[in-house]
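seq as requested:
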Amino acid sequence: MSKTATTILGFLLFIIGGLALVLSLIGVQLSFLTWIDAPSQLLGFVIRLLMILSGIVIVVLARTDWREDEELD
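struct tokens:
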């Protein structure tokens, strides 16, 4: 997968997770994420946080230039 596609995937995870978290705090849900709260609301909250964190990690890893880091050592 290219750097651009991986970065877009990371940003989408981050934005959708953040939006879902904010909306769940005011009592609204995104229709395609309603299954997240089925077991419990705490699990839904944790899954939304994991979506945000994994999006950040994916973007950071995709945008890191590994060859430049090796040359500095």
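The radius of gyration is 16 Å.
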